[in-house]
Amino acid sequence: MAKRKKKKLGLEGPTSDCLLLCDDVLISQGKNKHNLIGLIGGIAVRNFPAILEGYVAYARFSNVYGGQKITLKLSRGTDDATILEAEVPFPSQSDPLGVYTIVIPVPAFKVEEPGRYLFGAYHNGVPVASSPIIIQGPPTDKTGSQESRHDTDQ
């Protein structure tokens, strides 16, 4: 008698209702609350290239099965080039009906040009959640060069 091969069930990917880049996240141990400080929608830098650091990723996921991983990425909007990437594993005993909150420091990253960036969470390359981030540099004049500004008191 031929042996039957067991079919491996394809598990659904995690879902997310929140993915944010913050200055900091404080976690209240007494009330189990998360206090998000400085939600980032835009970052201004003095010049390019710029090294940005000191940020925290905050995300909430559900429909999580044991052993799954999520990849957090920051990519440039113009060409989808990856600026930053970090893989975050879920606990091996994850409950798909539970809610999993991820609070992790974001490693320093380098940006070389202004524009729209996308901070996203991906499972097996499929986007689960995203937040746009606008990165701006110093003002430019009509020729595209940086303006030189001299303030004088009169």
Tally of strands: 11
Helix and strand element order: EEEEEEEEEEE
Strand order of the largest sheet: 3-11-10-6-7
Shape: globular
Low-confidence stretches: 4-8, 147-154
Nearest-angstrom radius of gyration? 21 Å
SSE class: mainly beta
N-to-C CA distance: 99 Å
Mean pLDDT: 87
Task: Give the proportion of residues in helices.
Answer: under 10%
Specify the number of helices: 0
The major sheet is characterized as: 5 strands, mixed
Strand fraction equals over 45%
List the helices and strands and how they pair.
Elements: E1 15-28, E2 33-39, E3 42-44, E4 50-52, E5 56-62, E6 69-76, E7 82-89, E8 99-105, E9 109-111, E10 115-123, E11 126-136
Parallel strand pairs: 3-11
Antiparallel strand pairs: 1-2, 1-5, 4-9, 5-8, 6-7, 6-10, 10-11
Can you put this structure into words, describing what you see?
The structure is a single chain. This protein is an all-beta fold. Helix content is 0%, strand content 52%. It contains no helices and eleven strands. The strands form three sheets. Strands 3-11-10-6-7 form a five-stranded mixed β-sheet, with no helix packed on it. The protein has a four-stranded antiparallel β-sheet with strand order 2-1-5-8, with no helix packed on it. A hairpin with a 4-residue loop joins strand 1 (15-28) and strand 2. It is globular, with a radius of gyration of 21 Å. Residues 4-8 and 147-154 have low confidence and may be disordered.
